[in-house]
Design goal:
The strands form two sheets. Strands 1, 4, 5, 6, 7, 8 and 9 form a seven-stranded antiparallel beta sheet that branches. The protein has two domains: 8-17 and 31-71 and 198-363, no CATH class; 97-181, no CATH class. The chain is an alpha+beta fold. The protein has helices at 20-30, 61-65, 100-109, 169-179, 200-214, 234-246, 258-280, 286-318, 326-363, and strands at residues 3-5, 42-50, 72-76, 87-95, 113-119, 135-144, 149-154, 163-168, 183-191, 218-221, 227-231. This is Butirosin biosynthesis protein H N-terminal domain-containing protein.
């Protein structure tokens, strides 16, 4: 067979990681309902700040320069999780020579998607191409012997956005050689799209748990005690109050914050998807679902505006463009975040109240 391609859909609704985004994308082609798997995962905002007895001047400069202090959102992915039930992964090691091509073809013919560690410095068009070594698991789902290319799902061109990427055989083999000259580790994925149905009770339960965590403020010190990690929606307020200390020290080499800063507005998409599913399943009243959808659509827009304004500041600074009124700029960014915090706290409380009421009514029907 000269060419072969397994069915694939890119999942870019929310960034989980390069493994699970690709697995959900492949699964959703075979079972449309599995695009809702991300709604069953747990997310939470977090913000690192100097602990008592420390200050921005006394903590390690790396924390600030490498943008570790930026508002983050973590995915609580435990093993096994709600995604792991839908596939089996087998690790196979083979010699790193041209014979790996026949191994790849045989595994694809069995219907197995493949993760292979590559070096994106050999990927034309990638941000790292001929610049820096970047070992990364790529998702391979097809080939074309006539065109001499593999078909991959990659975010190497636009970080955090998966697209079909064609790479020439010679470039692919060169990238494998950069990782390990002696052997290639292939992780073959056998999908099980019908192993467990998605239902409204699962989505409702996961959403209630997620909203409860979001609305609860938890603070814990890190291992060396220099930082304290704040978790929950209150992290947004802490980030707002510390912008003037967090943003200026970020090194120009570390201003690629696309994935961390796209997560807050993508999280609103997770909420909207769960509302849509629970509304269509009859768990949420139609009018209440419409009101919640409107709130979260507005939040998504507010987060995108904030992200763009923050990147504008970082880009101008990296290019040496003078910023006329830094004080006013930080004040504007802080005001945006304070507004977002209030809206998101109110939306989360409303959504939780509606789901808890529905849960109570179901158990007393």
């Amino acid at each position: 067979m000269n060419a072969f391609k397994l069915p694939m859909r890119m999942f870019n609704d929310y960034w989980i990681d390069c493994i699970y985004n690709n697995i959900i994308g492949a699964l959703s082609v075979h079972n449309e309902d599995l695009k809702y798997l991300a709604c069953r995962l747990q997310f939470n905002y977090y913000q690192y700040l100097p602990n008592k007895g420390y200050s921005y001047e006394t903590i390690s400069p790396d924390y600030l320069e490498q943008a570790w202090m930026i508002l983050g959102m973590e995915n609580s992915i435990t093993k096994p999780n709600s995604i792991d039930y839908f596939y089996r992964m087998e690790s196979l090691e083979c010699p790193n020579d041209r014979g790996v091509h026949e191994t790849i073809k045989a595994l694809l013919a069995e219907g197995r998607y493949l993760f292979v560690d590559i070096d994106r410095a050999y990927f034309p068009g990638a941000a790292e191409f001929r610049k820096e070594r970047k070992i990364h698991p790529t998702f391979l789902y097809g080939y074309n012997d006539d065109a001499r290319v593999y078909y991959l799902s990659e975010d190497c061109v636009t970080l955090g956005v998966f697209k079909e990427y064609e790479i020439a055989y010679d470039d692919f083999f060169a990238s494998l050689q950069s990782v390990d000259r002696s052997s290639v580790l292939i992780k073959a994925i056998a999908l099980q799209p019908d192993s467990s149905p998605i239902d409204a009770a699962q989505i409702k339960g996961a959403t209630i748990s997620r909203l409860e965590r979001m609305l609860t403020h938890v603070a814990m010190p890190d291992e060396d005690g220099a930082l304290i990690k704040h978790c929950g929606l209150a992290s947004i307020q802490y980030f707002a109050d510390n912008l003037h200390s967090i943003l200026p020290p970020i090194s120009n080499e570390h201003i690629e914050l696309y994935i961390p800063m796209m997560r807050p507005y993508q999280y609103q998409e997770i909420n909207m998807t769960s509302i849509q599913y629970l509304g269509s399943s009859g768990v949420i009243d139609t009018s209440e679902a419409d009101q919640l959808m409107s709130k979260y659509a507005g939040l998504k827009n507010e987060w995108e505006i904030f992200k763009n304004q923050m990147f504008k500041y970082l880009y101008q600074r990296s290019m040496g463009v003078p910023i006329k009124n830094t004080e006013a700029m930080f004040s504007s960014l802080r005001e945006m975040l304070v507004n977002i915090y209030g809206i998101e706290k109110e939306a989360s409380a409303s959504y939780l109240q509606i789901l808890q009421r529905a849960h109570h009514q179901m158990h007393h029907a």
